[in-house]
Write a structure and sequence with these properties.
Blueprint: H1 9-24, E1 44-45, E2 49-52, E3 55-58, E4 66-67, E5 78-81, E6 84-87, E7 95-100, E8 114-119, H2 133-136, H3 150-160, E9 164-167, H4 176-188, E10 192-197, H5 203-210, E11 215-219, H6 225-232, H7 236-249, E12 252-259, H8 267-279, E13 287-291, H9 306-319, E14 324-327, E15 337-338, E16 345-350, E17 353-357, E18 359-360, E19 363-364
Parallel strand pairs: 8-9, 9-10, 10-11, 11-12, 12-13, 13-14
Antiparallel strand pairs: 1-6, 2-3, 3-4, 5-6, 7-8, 15-16, 16-17, 18-19
The protein binds zinc ion.
Length: 376
């Protein structure tokens, strides 16, 4: 698909909406949006692409976009120009905040610390329920950005007293090169790196990232591939592969499953998902069932009933998952960590605040059971 003309922001956003609508109807085509692809100082030659007889093949994510000169990938952040492929999301974040690590959420990773959190615009999915669609469903050329090169991110992180840098809000694997360079510099300064991601990345780039990645919270949207495609325009299998790669590489992993009424609330599917996790060595991986609140293209749906979330947690625990949480409900005891052996409360949480922590050197204070996680 070739169209190198510039378009207005309004028209661009309308096209995005049409594209996402197409995905919802199962008409998804991993093809190309085109707009102003001028290179500038925020452009960096991309990793993981090759030249083929059909054009430039992006090998970073399972969409495998093929771009002609002047085209932009499905993620809106990779362009083909002047005989090369570039990332246009380098040093130009559209969001920079300091968050509690619990907000990502990470419940078994450096509790009570802050994460210096950044995002550049773009995403390689089209989730109907996206919380951050204003930045995820836009290109770095369209968002309001600040200039913050990798070394400046690390300096700002140190200055803020944060113990980690979180690549989050949009889809961090779409600003892969920026994230990788920043993460390498961060490790030199003993700062940890964490991602909140959809896990829609190919094995090779993921393994490279894992060398400097300390923790990942991956959205596993459903265990039903048909629903996966409709709700996100992604596929299930590559996400499962990414989970296994993260496990193999020793990256601390937590998983979020958003339960959306009528879309991802099928209990049989939830059971199959939990069984897969247990059968693949992830029974001690924290699983966060998250409550849906109506927004974006699913604003007509009700919030997830609390009884649904409780039942999902019961199913997960019965399947063998040891640390199952309920998120997005303030003050619910589903935010606490319980010892899988003696059943006592080990970490008491209210929203993003830790009220009590009874894990001593990675073990239950009461019975000595080892509690998986990175605790200090
Ligand atoms: Zn215990």
């Amino acid at each position: 698909m070739k169209n190198t003309s510039n378009i207005s922001k309004r028209e661009f956003l309308r096209q995005c909406t049409l594209c996402a609508g197409g995905a919802a109807l199962g008409m998804y085509n991993p093809s190309i949006l085109s707009f102003n692809t001028e290179l500038n100082k925020f452009s960096k030659e991309a990793l993981f692409y090759s030249k083929t007889e059909n054009g430039f093949l992006c090998e970073k994510c399972p969409h495998f976009c093929t771009l002609d000169d002047g085209d932009t990938g499905f993620c809106r952040s990779r362009v083909a120009s002047n005989g090369k492929m570039y990332s246009i999301a380098y040093g130009n974040p559209c969001a920079v905040h300091i968050d509690p690590i619990e907000k990502k959420p990470f419940f078994h990773f450096l509790p009570s610390t802050n994460a210096f959190s950044i995002a550049a615009a773009g995403c390689n999915m089209r989730c109907l329920n996206c919380q951050n669609w204003q930045i995820s469903q836009a290109s770095p050329n369209e968002s309001d950005n600040i200039e913050l090169m990798p070394e400046e991110v690390v300096k700002a992180c140190i200055k803020s007293g944060s113990e980690s840098i979180a690549y989050t809000y949009s889809e961090p694997t779409t600003f892969f090169e920026y994230m990788l360079d920043t993460a390498r510099l961060a490790h030199e300064q003993k700062i940890r790196n964490v991602i909140k991601s959809n896990g829609y990345i190919n094995e090779k780039p993921l393994r490279l990232l894992c060398k400097v990645l300390d923790a990942a919270n991956i959205d596993l949207k459903t265990y039903d591939d048909r629903i996966y495609r409709k709700i996100s325009s992604g596929k299930l299998k590559p996400v499962l592969t990414a989970l296994k790669v993260l496990r193999d590489e020793g990256v601390w992993l937590e998983i979020t499953n958003l339960i959306i009424p009528s879309w991802t609330d099928n209990f049989d599917t939830i059971k199959k998902m939990c069984e897969w996790l247990c059968n693949n060595g992830m029974s001690e991986t924290p699983l966060h069932f998250s409550r849906f609140t109506p927004l974006y293209k699913l604003s007509q749906l009700p919030p997830t009933p609390i009884v649904t979330l409780k039942k999902a947690r019961k199913i997960a625990e019965d399947s063998g998952m040891k640390f199952v949480y309920i998120g997005n409900i303030s003050g619910h005891d589903g935010e606490n960590t319980y010892c899988p052996k003696c059943g006592k409360v080990l970490v008491e949480r209210r929203i993003f605040t830790i009220l009590g922590n009874y894990i001593i050197k990675g073990k239950c204070k009461y019975c000595g059971e080892k509690i998986s996680g990175i605790w200090n």
